[in-house]
Every structure is written in structure tokens, then in C-alpha cells.
Amino acid sequence: MPRPFALYISTALREVEKRAMGVAGIDEDSLMRRAGQAAWRQLLHTWPQAQRILVLCGPGNNGGDGWVLAQHALDAGRQVRVLMPADELPRTPLAQKMADAYRKAGGAVDVFDGGLPDADVIVDALFGIGCHRAPVGRMALFVDAVNASLLPVLALDVPSGVDADTGHVPGMAINAMHTIQFIAAHAGLATGAALDHVGSLSLSGLDVPDECFDGLDAAAEALARPELTPRLRDSHKGRHGHVLAIGGDHGMGGAIILTSQAALRAGAGLVSVATRSEHVPVLMARRPEAMAHAVEDAASLDALLRRADALALGPGLGQADWGRVLFDAATCADKPSVIDADALNILVDSPRPLPAAVLTPHPGEAARLLGTDKNTVQSDRYTAARQLADKFDCVVVLKGAGSLIAAPGRTTRVCMLGNPGMAGGGMGDALTGIIATLLAQGHAPFDAASIGVWLHARAGDRAAERGEIGMLASDLIAELPATIAECTA
After folding, report:
1. How far apart are CA 219 and CA 212, in angstroms?
2. Nearest Cα to 73, choosing from 149, 150, 154?
3. I need a surface site. Which of 25, 165, 335, 395 has the fewest CB within 10 A?
4. 63 is in an annotated binding site
5. pLDDT tens digits for 198-254?
6. Is 160 annotated for ligand binding?
7. Which regions of 37-87 does DSSP assign to beta strands (E)?
8. Is residue 228 part of a domain?
9. Are residues 376 and 414 in the same domain?
10. Is 147 annotated as a binding residue?
């Protein structure tokens, strides 16, 4: 099997299939039979009581996997029907072979006429991982009928309509309850719009030998739980990093307060805050552990910059003269930095290389930084993240469902944790404080971003145990100490 956290695109998986046939003597017939059998076992595991099984078979080899599953279900005495999108034979010889075997065993086959027969479970074997277009015409009606049925769906390899390489959903797509991936995990099923369609995920390697992956680069890798070093008993605050949080223009003090709180809860030894004078009393009342400083110009920021180990720049910074002056001073200080929120918008107007920085844009900010639109970013989040990393010569966290961490010369990482409750104000400010703390503690930018994204998402999942809707950034921040404890040996 490949590395447990490696994610691949379809061209790499095609190469693995070719190698399996050449190196291990596994023919296409065997791979398809293994896939169909693995899918049938997954169906039995997930829906053991299901008796009426409806298998949707497309004309390609993904449909062939479905025909094999249907044969297993038939042999097991289940009520099985195969439903085809049109009155046509499978287009590949292998799929045709599996279809013929199912028919000869007495399996029922129908053509979609706008309605679906009664079923306990639907199996989606319409499109494979090589399909990157939206369903159209009668196929679109087919997909719509499946989703409207509200029946549980098992998708084989990828829910039909989802791009398995990018996660883009260009039109409509099957809403699966579970997706079983074959040979290796697919990069596109870990990020973006795909996450609303894949349901839970599993992987069957189909017994393809390890050597079939030799020399093949993964497109991405899923973040694993970090292993953090416990603190020495003889610790003091000077050993755990000094974060300077810069932001909070008039009327925007809440963002920088959340950043400072997150930095403290993430374990920073010291946190200073450079903000407008009006926010100092509030910050002292809300978070007295942070050292609040009224800063009106670059000169008054200079001493704070010298003492800091890392910067959290942008939350509530604004884009007026005050914010721009502080932005210029901070980015010239040659300190490890997290650049977020308004600092990213200022960067749009004055782009520059930032090799010591971690940029944390959401898709809208990423689009402005790249001079494109949000839809383009979301249609291929991997490419957008890599383009940003190359343009600014730094680490980039492209936030959103399945957040990505990209850097020049590094394999992109994907966060598989998190939940919709985190789609709220202040969550990005918290992430900025967490990553800044890790930078201040000496972690390299790529590792600080990776660890920080994982901690942020896991803390969000812990907070969501009390309910996603109405969850606040401060709820997530409160979970950080326990989350870090999970990762400390």
C-alpha cells in the first residue's frame, strides 16, 4: 500500500494500474473483480440489513465495478437491479464481460426512464475518476433523481459529478453517504465542494504491491496528528515564544483580541498586542495576560518588533493609512510572520516576496492575491494554493473545507478535520494566533502552518461536540489546551 496519508490524482493511479499489470501480473480483469468485491464488502459492513440493492452502472470501467458488485449481491440472495442511464451496452470490453456474467446469472437490468425503483441502498458506479465534466442531459436527470430519493448511496471510487483530482463540482453530483476509493486515496475527495458529496471515506488498495508506487509523487498528503514535545518542568515563559499581534484599527478591536487569546491558549510564553489606544482598556479587561500597547505609528511599533519572536499581522488592521504604515514596518522587520485578513488585502496592492511568512487567505482573499475570481480558485484549490506559494515565495494556508498548506518545493498538505460550525467570524483570527505561536516557538513556517491548521481544526471539532450552529471562535480557543494535550507524548 502507498503511504497512509498520501493522496494521488487519476494520472498517477492509471500508472499504478499499468505497473501492477506489468510488475505483479495483475490483469485488468482481476483488478475489476477485486474492486467490485471490496465494494460489496463495504456495502455489507455499512448497511448489513439492506435487501433491495439498486446499482447504477455507467458505460465505462466504473460501471464494470458496479456489475461485479451486483453479481456478488445476487449470489448473496439480495434483490438486485442494475439501472443504466441509457439503452446502450457498456463501452469497454471488460465492463461488457462483467455485465454479461451478471445477466447470465439472471440479474435484472433496466434503463432509467425518469424514476427509480424501490431500494434500500443505491450504488453509484456511473462515472470513474477520469471524468472531469458535469453530468448533462439525461445523465443530469439521473443524478437529480438519485439525490431527490434521499436513499443512502455508496459511491465507487468517486461520487459521479465530482472531479477526483481537484474536488471541483462543475454541475450537479451524487450525494453519497459513503465513498470507497480504490488503489489509493484521491486528492480531490479531501477538499472543496467534494466534501459535500463524498460522505465518509474508506480505501481498498486491491492488494496492489508497494513497489507499484515507487518514484510516483503524491499530489498531496493528509495532515496527521502532530507529535508535540512536552514541556520541561524547569520551564519559564521566555522559552515558549513571544508573539506580537498587530491590528485592531478603529472599531475593529475584536479580531486582534481573539488572535491574542488564541496565541495564549496555544501556549505562547508572552503575547504583546499593538493596537489603537481605544482597544487597550478592553483588552486588559478581557485578557489581562496579554500585554496591550497603544501604537499610533511605525516609530512606536519599532521597540515591540525588536522584542518579538514572531508576528501575527492583519486581524482588524484595516486598509487605511494606519494599517498600511504598520504593515510596511512589520514586513520589513525580518521576523517570522502570519499574514492574514486586512494585511492580505494590503499585500494585493504592494506584492513582495515573503519567505519567512505564512499567508492564510480564504478563497476570496486568494482570488484577489492572484488577480482572479473566487470560482476559479475553488475550481482547483490545489493549483491556487501552489500559485500563491510560488508568487510570494512563502507558505500558504488556503482556508476552507479541506484547508490546504502549500509551499515552494513541498508536497501540499490537506486537513481532513474541521466542520461547518467553523464558518463564522473570528475563526481565522484564532488560526493566526495559533500559527504565530508555533513560529515563535521555533517551528519552521511549513511545519508551524501544518501543526496550527491541525490544532485549529481539531479544537473546532471538539467545540462542535456541543453543536455546530452557534459555535463561536472563543469556543474553539477554549478547546486548545486539551487539543494540544492530545498531541503531547
Report:
1. 16
2. 154
3. 25
4. yes
5. 999 999 999 999 999 999 999 999 999 999 999 999 999 999 999 999 999 999 999
6. yes
7. 52-57, 79-84
8. no
9. yes
10. no
